[in-house]
Amino acid sequence: xxxxxxxxxxxxxxxxxxxxxxxxxxxxxxxxxxxxxxxxxxxxxxxxxxxxxxxxxxxxxxxxxxxxxxxxxxxxxxxxxxxxxxxxxxxxxxxxxxxxxxxxxxxxxxxxxxxxxxxxxxxxxxxxxxxxxxxxxxxxxxxxxxxxxxxxxxxxxxxxxxxxxxxxxxxxxxxxxxxxxxxxxxxxxxxxxxxxxxxxxxxxx
Length: 205
Ligand SMILES: C[S@@+](CC[C@H](N)C(=O)[O-])C[C@H]1O[C@@H](n2cnc3c(N)ncnc32)[C@H](O)[C@@H]1O
Description:
Helices cover about 40% and strands about 25% of the residues.
């Protein structure tokens, strides 16, 4: 399947390493009690987060992305991860397959219809009481001046459609405005990177 990320696959990890590495560590810390559980990273890109989790002793790891070139970068590492070239809005998994689902910096760049379809699919394939960990941008009065300036510039550089979706996501209060508390109840929330990134851990209701 084709993704706008296909052409960026070979440089993605290198360029974004300083920004993404603190996120990889924070996700691993947040999921410490889930080592050995069946974990899916939706829109996993090159699988960089999964490789980091593997290096920290996580074992039952699965990564799904639309972009074959992004997945191929992950596969080259020969880390024991199961890879799926699929659409996160319509996967091949049975109901209630995973104990934990994560997704990092993926929802903000999609339009509302796609965001809602991905969350509906997440709800379907996550086990009852399962854990959802989302990481995404947040720009509000708690975010630093630097985050307010830098994040929109980075998003604009990613393309006009991407930027339009980011602006709508921001106006709709990001993850807070998107997640239905009747489906996913918030358990913990942490900010990082000049308080412009939020990690929210939810439990499936
Ligand atoms: C900003 S990148 C984030 C990648 C990864 N989560 C990370 O933290 O490095 C967004 C990823 O979402 C993927 N993607 C976009 N739409 C998708 C969809 N409908 N289903 C699965 N993956 C998708 C892209 O191919 C890309 O790899």
